[in-house]
Amino acid sequence: MKIFLKETYQHHRPLLEIRSTYRTELADIYGFLESEARAKVEGNFLCNFRQIIHAFLSREVIVAYIDDDRGFRFCGFYAVFESSGGILQVKGSERGRHIGMHLANAGLKRLKRKGVTTLKVQCAPLESKGFWQKMGAVFDEAKPWDEWGTLDLTTWKPRRAIRKS
C-alpha cells in the first residue's frame, strides 16, 4: 500500500510505502533496533528480535519506507502477534508523521481478516498508551500504571490522519 503523506516538501508530498517484509529487510529492522539499544532508547525491542523473526516466518511483519526529499529509507515496522498486539516501532526522527498509525491500521486489518475479534494490547513503554487509545484500545482508568488494554476488532475502524490547520 502506498500513501501520500499530508506534508509537502519542495512541491512534492512524501510517499509512504507499507507492505510485507522481504527477508533482506530483516537486517534493516535489526540495525534499527541495535542502534536504538546503543543509544539507550527506552522501550527498545532488540530483546524481542526472535519474536520478530517468528512473526516474519508467519508472514506477519509489515515495514514502512518513506520517499521524500531525503531519499528512500526505512522508517518503522510492525510485527503482528494475535496474543499481545505485536511490536510496533517507528524511528524517532520519523515520529509525528502518522507512520505508526498507518502501520497499526495495516496490522489490525490483517488480524480482523483472520477472524481475531479482541486484541490484548501491551503498552511498553507506557508512553505508547496514548497512541493505542487513539487507535481504539480501552484501558482501566482506575489503574493508570497498568500497561494492558483491550481493542475490540469487531467494531474497530481504521484511523485517518487529521490535517492540522
CATH superfamily: Gcn5-related N-acetyltransferase (GNAT)
Instruction: Report the C-alpha radius of gyration, rounded.
Output: 16 Å
Low-confidence stretches: 7-11
| Cross-sheet strand order for the largest sheet | 1-2-3-4-5
Describe this structure in words.
It is a single chain. The chain has 165 residues and is an alpha+beta fold. It has one domain (2-152): Gcn5-related N-acetyltransferase (GNAT) (Aminopeptidase). It has four helices and seven strands, in the order E-E-H-H-E-E-E-H-E-H-E.
Descriptive tags:
165 residues; Aminopeptidase; alpha+beta; globular; two-stranded antiparallel ribbon; 5-stranded antiparallel sheet; 7 strands
Could you outline the blueprint of secondary structure elements for this entry?
Layout: E1 2-4, E2 15-20, H1 26-38, H2 49-57, E3 61-68, E4 71-79, E5 87-90, H3 99-113, E6 118-122, H4 129-134, E7 148-152
Antiparallel strand pairs: 1-2, 2-3, 3-4, 4-5, 6-7
Quick synopsis:
This protein is globular.
